[in-house]
Design goal:
Number of helices of chain A: 9
Oligomer: homodimer
Shape of chain A: elongated
Structural class of chain A: mainly alpha
Strand content of chain A: under 5%
Chain lengths: 194, 194
Amino acid sequence: MTSTDGSSSRGPYAKGVQRRQEILDQTLEVVASRGIDGTSLRAIGEAIGVSHAALRHYFSSREALLVEVLRERDEASNRALGDTAGVFARLEFVAHRNVVEPALVTLYTTLLGTSVEPGNETARSYFAGRFATARAELAGQLRDELTASGRHSDVDLDQVASLIIAAFDGLQVQWLLDRDVDIAGTLRLLERVL
Amino acid sequence: MTSTDGSSSRGPYAKGVQRRQEILDQTLEVVASRGIDGTSLRAIGEAIGVSHAALRHYFSSREALLVEVLRERDEASNRALGDTAGVFARLEFVAHRNVVEPALVTLYTTLLGTSVEPGNETARSYFAGRFATARAELAGQLRDELTASGRHSDVDLDQVASLIIAAFDGLQVQWLLDRDVDIAGTLRLLERVL
DNA sequence: GTCTATACGAAGATAGAC
DNA sequence: GTCTATCTTCGTATAGAC
């Protein structure tokens, strides 16, 4: 007994929490360096020295593990962003970050693709939530920038946010398939016309 | 011998070509009606009354079959489009078409997602080619419309094309995850600002 | 050429031993 | 809490009937 919680449902032990975090971090590293090729539970397990069953002890499914990797990276990305000002400055920051981590962009794209088919509820709810909050945040930032600059606009800012996110994701896919696609340049084009 | 081709490599027989087409059409129907859930080769085979091995006689892999389904639908879509004038009118036509066929949009999104991971060369080359020609065609149409209207623009039309396609695909994914997302409305927003 | 039957290996998931 | 053994399903491969 290492827990002071005497209830029947005592939650994870400290050791387990730490181990889970280690697995998550190592999985992120493995994916980032080797690519998504070896992202079967067995391959990940072998790479970080645990059995595939052990992985499932901490993550309810492969899908859940990979979603957590994405969430983890997202949070790290937000921390790195800090209080960078300006919607498009923030976008460009993320875009540049992604360019040097193609494997994680690939993981994002792959998981997003699977999230739209029935049966992958973990990924689906992650991405649905992510898009919803991203749209809301972006719309809020746009509103702030607009009022700060004294201008005003009659366009639906939620639609603008939706459009920006769509363009970002869509360009990233095109870029993965053809590295000649200029994500940053095209985003600047969008910025200019908005 | 039902072929008049006397060479050593005489290609598929008439019956085979027809059968292949039947399988393709039926697969499209099955996917459209039942969704991508049952798109294992065995499930497709069972649904249309052939063994999964027979499917592989006509299509070198599951990936190849599904890519062909997408290509087939794309061509049908282009035929239906006819000579509809105007870049955004064409986009909206396709968007409306897609709204009533969510299963095929799901198939598109799913396959696109897998195409970016190594090892799925069939899907990758299909989508890479599709994006390349779509960008070129769209840029050409934009150029034509611009010169026809006597205006001119200093923006890179290839980038505009890339942006429009990215927005279209990106919005479609958001829509699949949340039907409240307004694809057509947001595309009109993009049209207005361009 | 067309197709059925069957086998193989890898994958995610599960049960239960320790 | 962790791991081994096993189950099921998948894509793929091959043999051979017609």
